[in-house]
Design a protein that fits this description.
The complex is a heterotrimer of chains A (354), B (235) and C (325). Chain A is an all-alpha fold and 354 residues long. Chain A is built from 16 helices and no strands. Chain A has one domain. The radius of gyration of chain A is 23 Å and the shape is globular. The chains are: A mainly alpha (354), B alpha/beta (235), C mainly alpha (325). The interface between A and C is large, with 40 and 40 residues. The structure holds adenosine-5'-triphosphate and magnesium ion (MG).
């Protein structure tokens, strides 16, 4: 199973800042583009919070959305029934979600690998059942919640239904906060203990680290950040139902990550964009959509395991190499000399294919 | 029946663990492979057994080319293996382990007879007959592993560190068994760190280093080599 | 018998709580209700068990979590429907019982072959790598469900029953259809049990589960085995679907629920453990039947998930599992 050593790539986040800020200038007038952009960004956020998790990363996705859902439901309920403004929820809800997740993790973290993933999935489905069937007056039952108030206006900044740009920058702010937290963790002792548990749980135990509590704490942080994204999700969409946080939805998220590319933060976003493009272009062929999606998934896993991002990266590198070769071609004399001396003779000896 | 390994290459990703090894095991002889940890000895053995694919080269058993064959095919030609670390089936009883050793055979009476032979050769296995193999001591597992391989009625035997961790008494037992098998005409290729054990059993030796054969020769030649004296015999 | 070992505490707890549930029904309601709930539980439990055993075999031999398994179940039901209703050759020239049995066999063969093809061309190249194979099976599941909708439409199909009439047991009537399901499932289970515990095939299977390389060195052809196991597992799902179809309904989504339950069963029982799967299947079948009658389906589902989580907390490798992944 692919494990990512660092929680993020420093340079990749730096590279993303400029396009992030420029995007609304190009897309601001087009609500559809803005919506796609926000969805892609939100998916990156969810993947970020998931990457923090020490457990098996991809397999756990199916259970991870439940925590986003909790954030969404709690903040909507607080907003509608107690009149708490969005901004208060943004601060109050993540710790609540985190607390619940710690209570769940304390027993659940004893399991490992596939079993832990299944516990996480079972829990996600319990959450979905809970929101779909319990306290229907507050949580809306199977149909979910709709006509939610959204984000409360902040002074002169209005967060109306069509203020996509405002929502966009709100999400950018939330993402910046998440990245900041992840960075702080990565550089602190906690981050060190996370990494050491991920690499070598047995060894960490021997060194005196409390692996159990490290895992519980890790789970708590990851889930509360997921809850934070849930608060935004609810306020932006203003309508959602419990199924959006089910394990089935989680498997779709898994597909985004695979198809987009696991090696990079932008991967999942590319996956989402591909999905949205496909859905829009196949509007007339609605019945064929999930069939296409299944075929695309299989093709990517079989032939392009590093996803769209990997494809772009390889194309890019190939392009650079190609141009270098072209640039080298017109000056044959010195290049040829260099080439004939560089490859060690031993490399040619062994037969290369069996 | 002789075993021929010609210019064998084994790769694990970028790492080339075996780089052009040539080994001949003549009919009815014991041939030993020596070498430091990580020299590629087990990789050669696994390629012959068919549990890994070779990257290049040829492996011949008699007049059949066996590289590219799976173990289930080469075992039909009479090739049995005691793998590195024994790998007995821990959750099964001693008897079940032995019966699995005879999986490739279909002669029921022959199997029953061989089972009794094994119990005679290794009395401790008879005692532990109904016990789970995982609960056996290391030495007992070593005996079970070789007995399981013998259940194939091999004409050719691959041994990877068969006496690792065994007490002198059991080592002597193994010594006798290998001699006896050789006298019965079984051809044997053996990887072992115990130099004296190999020297006394083998008719020919290969010394591997970093994926290549560094020195080869008869035991006498090898023991007189300065390099071997320094590295392996501590003289 | 090692059933009294401390390790099996959760298994006993589960068993005792099932008994407690039964006693509760007996005391609180009456004998007839009890029999009806139990019968229904047995019917569901057996169906789920057939589905779950395929999954358990696949996990044991090839470390595969096959998320297309529910669609194999659905395809089984669709195949039977296809041969019984869509092309009416069989029903035209044969009495309904042989026609149904032949359709069942055809469904097993077709879906079993599909399983082997999937193994050969999709799963095999990933060896024991869990995640890519799992994702491929997810994609495959999407494709199969959609393909059925495209081929045969969204409408619910029904398979005519081959076994009309009913029997009375302790004052409760049980349709012959359900009785046939129970008997067929039991026959298949006994056959499977015999195959696993009394044949060379079964011994080889256990060996592969323990140590694939060592098993190969004994002369077991792993590749062939994977194909056979895929065939058996898929065919079991298909026959479960074909038996379930006439009793309930045939829809493209009909596999989702049983597959979720089947996963719960193999995890509860301990991945790869066949007896564990058996116990878990009956427990969950009974819980579902009990819950559907008295508590409503949602609470029963709730209860199911809660049981899974609780069992795994106390025994992180399932009731009869040894060692994690
Ligand atoms: N499955 C594998 N994947 C990657 N590298 C491997 C694998 N198996 C062996 N190697 C590497 O190949 C080299 C040779 O290994 P091999 O097991 O053949 O050594 P050896 O001579 O048997 O050593 P030892 O005496 O310790 O058993 C080693 O460097 C080892 O790390
Ligand atoms: Mg070795």
């Amino acid at each position: 199973m692919q494990q990512i050593k660092r929680l993020y790539h420093n340079n990749s986040i730096g590279l993303m800042v400029v396009p992030l800020l420029i995007f609304p200038i190009f897309a601001g007038g087009n609500p559809y583009l803005m919506f796609t952009g926000i969805l892609a960004l939100y998916t990156i956020g969810v993947t970020l919070t998931l990457r923090l998790k020490l457990s098996s990363y991809l397999l756990d996705i199916a259970g991870h959305l439940a925590w986003v859902g909790m954030g969404a439901y709690f903040s909507s309920a607080l907003q509608v029934h107690l009149g708490w403004p969005f901004w208060v929820n943004l601060i109050a809800v993540p710790p609540i979600v985190g607390l619940i997740s710690v209570l769940v993790a304390m027993p659940a973290i004893r399991t490992q690998g596939v079993y832990l993933a299944i516990v996480a999935i079972a829990f996600a489905d319990i959450v979905v059942l809970f929101f779909g069937n319990m306290f229907t007056g507050v949580f809306g039952g199977h149909g979910g919640l709709y006509a939610l108030p959204g984000v409360n206006n902040l002074g002169p900044i209005s967060f109306g239904k069509d203020d996509h740009v405002a929502y966009y920058f709100l999400l950018v702010g939330i993402m910046a906060f998440i990245v900041y937290i992840l960075r702080r963790i990565d550089r602190s002792r906690i981050g060190l203990s996370f990494r050491s548990v991920r690499e070598q749980a047995d060894l960490s135990e021997a060194v005196g680290l409390n692996v159990y509590w490290t895992k519980v704490l890790n789970w708590g942080i990851s889930c509360s950040l997921a809850g934070l994204l849930g608060v935004f999700f609810a306020a932006y969409l203003r309508a959602f139902n419990p199924d959006e946080f089910s394990s089935a939805a989680g498997f779709f998220l898994m597909a985004y990550i695979i198809i987009g590319g696991r090696g990079h933060l932008l991967g999942p976003a590319l996956g989402v964009v591909l999905f949205v493009v496909m859905r829009e272009s196949l509007r007339s062929l609605e019945l064929w959509q999930s069939l296409f999606w299944g075929v695309i998934m299989i093709i990517f896993i079989m032939f392009i395991p590093d996803g769209i991002y990997g494809l772009i990266k390889r194309g890019w590198e190939w392009g650079i190499a190609f141009r270098a070769r072209q640039a080298a071609a017109p000056v044959p004399a010195p290049a040829a000399v260099a080439a004939s001396t560089t490859p060690p003779p031993s490399e040619r000896v062994g037969p290369s294919s069996g | 029946m002789p075993l021929l390994i010609k210019d064998l290459h084994v790769r694990y990703g970028a790492l080339e663990a075996v780089q052009g090894v040539n080994i001949t095991v003549p009919d009815g002889k014991v041939v030993g492979i020596l070498g430091a940890n990580g020299a590629g000895k087990s990789s050669v053995l696994k390629a012959v057994a068919g549990t890994i694919r070779s990257a290049a080269g040829e492996i011949w058993l008699d007049d059949k080319r066996i590289d590219g064959m799976g173990p289930h095919q080469s075992i039909k030609l009479g090739l049995a293996t005691v793998p590195e670390g024994r790998r007995v089936f821990a959750g099964m009883t001693v008897e079940e382990n032995l019966r699995l050793g005879a999986y490739s055979r279909n002669d029921k009476p022959g199997i029953e007879q061989d089972l009794q032979t094994m119990f005679e050769r290794f009395p401790i296995l008879k005692e532990r007959r109904k016990q789970h193999a995982g609960t056996l001591s290391g030495g007992e597992q070593g005996q079970l592993a070789i007995a399981r391989a013998l259940m194939v009625r091999p004409r050719f035997l691959l041994l990877d560190e068969p006496i690792q961790g065994l007490s002198p008494v059991i080592t002597d037992l193994f010594f006798d068994i290998i001699l006896k098998l050789r006298d019965e005409g079984v051809t044997i290729m053996m990887v072992e760190h115990n130099v004296h054990f190999v020297l006394n059993l083998s008719s020919y030796l290969y010394l591997m280093e970093q994926g290549k054969v560094r020195i080869e020769g008869e035991p006498k030649e090898l023991t007189s080599s300065e390099y071997v004296q320094m590295m392996y015999l501590g003289r | 018998m090692r059933f009294f070992k401390k390790d099996y505490g959760p298994a006993w707890a589960l068993f005792l709580s099932a008994i407690a549930l039964m006693v509760y029904v007996l005391v609180e309601y009456n004998f007839t209700v009890f029999v009806r709930v139990s019968m229904n539980g047995i019917v569901l439990g057996l169906t789920y068990l057939l589905v779950a055993l395929g999954l358990a075999l696949m996990w044991g031999v090839m470390h595969l979590l096959n998320f297309a398994h529910g669609q194999f179940f659905m395809m089984g039901a669709f195949s039977v429907w296809y041969f019984m209703v869509r092309v009416d050759v069989l029903t035209k020239y044969l009495p309904i019982v042989p026609a149904y049995l032949i359709s069942l066999v055809l469904a097993m063969v077709i879906v079993g072959m599909m399983g082997t093809l999937v193994e050969r061309y999709l799963f095999r190249r990933f060896g024991g790598d869990l995640l890519p194979a799992l994702l491929i099976s997810l994609g495959l599941g999407l494709i199969l469900a959609q393909a059925m909708i495209l081929a045969f439409g969204l409408l619910t199909k029904s398979i005519p029953t081959a076994f009309a009439g009913s029997q009375r047991f302790f004052g409760v009537s049980l349709t012959n259809e359900r009785l046939a399901l129970v008997i067929s499932a039991l026959v298949l289970l006994v056959a499977l049990w015999w195959l696993v515990s009394h044949t060379k095939f079964g011994r080889a299977m256990v060996a592969i589960r323990e140590d694939q390389t060592a098993a190969a060195l004994q002369g077991i052809d792993i590749g062939k085995f994977r194909l056979i196991v895929m065939f058996i597992g898929s065919a079991l799902a298909a026959v479960a679907g074909g038996l379930y179809g006439p009793v309930f309904q045939v829809t493209p989504e009909m596999g989702t629920g049983p597959m979720a339950t089947a996963f719960a069963i193999i995890v509860l029982g301990g991945l790869g453990s066949l007896p564990g799967a058996g116990i878990a299947a009956f427990f969950l079948g009974f819980v579902e039947s009990f819950g559907a009658t008295f508590l409503g389906a949602t609470i029963a589902q709730f209860f199911t998930f809660a049981v899974i989580i609780l069992v795994l907390i106390f025994k992180p490798t399932g009731l009869f599992g040894h060692g994690g992944h």
